[in-house]
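Below is a filled-in request sheet from our internal design queue. Each sheet records the structural input a requester submitted and the sequence that came back. We keep these sheets so that new team members can see what a complete request looks like end to end.

REQUESTER: design group, bay 2
PRIORITY: normal
MODE: inverse folding
CHAIN LENGTH: 137
BACKBONE (tokenized):
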């Protein structure tokens, strides 16, 4: 069941159904972006509204075609680990990213209670600041 919840999160976001994604979150979810990620400045995000305002809306405002595409979702009971790639283009610089990610979800009573992101933060920083050309995989 936990894998299905994580999969539902990716599917909802892929079709642009943010309300459905937010419904999968516990009212007291603790959401953490990777250290040094551009949106880690408000870690931890507590509650779906904080995730919406601090992460989802910022991604939508600053990136074209942002997608989190899981390649593999691993079941660890109440924990789920997703391995995949982010793909997007920074609106300000037109530099694309194609970065690996690992997401760790903690699930309780059918809701996501905790989320931790790990990713190539330098690639995002470079795309947003046009300091370097982002790595293409």
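RETURNED SEQUENCE:
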């Amino acid at each position: 069941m936990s894998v299905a919840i994580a999969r539902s999160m990716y599917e909802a976001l892929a079709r642009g159904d943010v309300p459905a994604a937010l419904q999968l979150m516990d009212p007291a979810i603790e959401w953490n972006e990777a250290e040094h990620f551009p949106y880690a400045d408000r870690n931890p995000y507590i509650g779906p509204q904080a995730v919406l305002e601090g992460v989802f809306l910022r991604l939508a405002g600053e990136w074209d075609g942002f997608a989190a595409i899981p390649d593999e979702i691993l079941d660890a009971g109440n924990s789920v680990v997703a391995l995949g790639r982010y793909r997007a283009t920074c609106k300000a610089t037109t530099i694309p990213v194609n970065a690996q990610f690992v997401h760790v979800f903690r699930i309780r009573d059918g809701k996501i209670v905790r989320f931790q992101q790990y990713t190539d933060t330098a690639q995002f920083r470079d795309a947003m600041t046009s300091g370097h050309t982002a790595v293409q995989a």
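SHEET NOTES:
- The chain has a mean pLDDT of 94.
- The CA atoms of residues 3 and 75 lie 6 Å apart.
FILED BY: M.R.
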